[in-house]
Amino acid sequence: MKKEWCTITVSSGHKVKIDREDLDCVNEHSWRVTTGSTGRLRVVTSIRSPKGSRSVTLGRFLMQPPKSKQVYPRRFNDGLDYRKDNLVICTMKERQRLISKRRTNTSSPYKGVSYLKAKKKWRAGIEVNSVAINLGDFMHEEDAALAYNVAARKHFGDIAYQNQIKKAPQRKNDPKKR
């Protein structure tokens, strides 16, 4: 069976995944990789019109969202997976649910997780409709990250960011300790 996607090589030498059905229209342009405002790689081209030239991301080019919405990959994979089933059209607010934790100098690399020195425990939390929800305190950081993942999927559905947990918790007792 022939795979439904292929890769193109852009001017920087990066390989980008796209759906095979998009290959002809994508090849009509010269694509390059730049770094976006979040620090992630993105694929762009310049489109010329009578009004001038403008940069367009490959996601916007392929999905053509309304002006009030953006296109982002669900799984970033260095931002170079532009197959349509990996792209989501969303508002800036919805995007915040999709992206990982931005700050790097924090107690935990996981989104929705912080360390409570006084209790010597990890706290999981999530914000839904501008309301902070405490998901509980945990003995292990990975358990708190898992609690965030469950809550994020419950509140935000398929577009919710999921922490990539380093090691799977393997404990017999309930990990939640209050």
Mean pLDDT: 85
Secondary-structure element order, as H and E? EEHEEEHEEHEEEH
What structural class should be given to the helix and strand makeup?
Answer: alpha+beta
Question: Radius of gyration in whole Å, from Cα?
Answer: 20 Å
Strand order of the largest sheet: 3-4-5
How many helix segments? 4
Q: In the residues, how many domains can be counted?
A: 2
Question: What does this entry show, briefly?
Answer:
By secondary structure, the chain is of the alpha+beta class. The protein is 19% helix and 32% strand.
Protein described:
The structure is a single chain. This protein is an alpha+beta fold. The protein has 2 domains: 5-94, Homing Intron 3 (I-Ppo) Encoded Endonuclease, Chain A (Alpha-Beta Complex); 100-159, AP2/ERF domain (GCC-box Binding Domain, 2-Layer Sandwich). 19% of the residues lie in helices and 32% in strands. It has 4 helices and 10 strands, in the order ββαβββαββαβββα. It has helices at residues 23-26, 58-63, 92-98, 141-156, and strands spanning 5-9, 15-19, 32-35, 41-49, 52-57, 70-73, 87-90, 113-116, 121-128, 131-138. Strands 3-4-5 form a 3-stranded antiparallel beta sheet. β4 (41-49) and β5 form a beta hairpin. It is elongated and about 60 Å long. The mean pLDDT is 85.
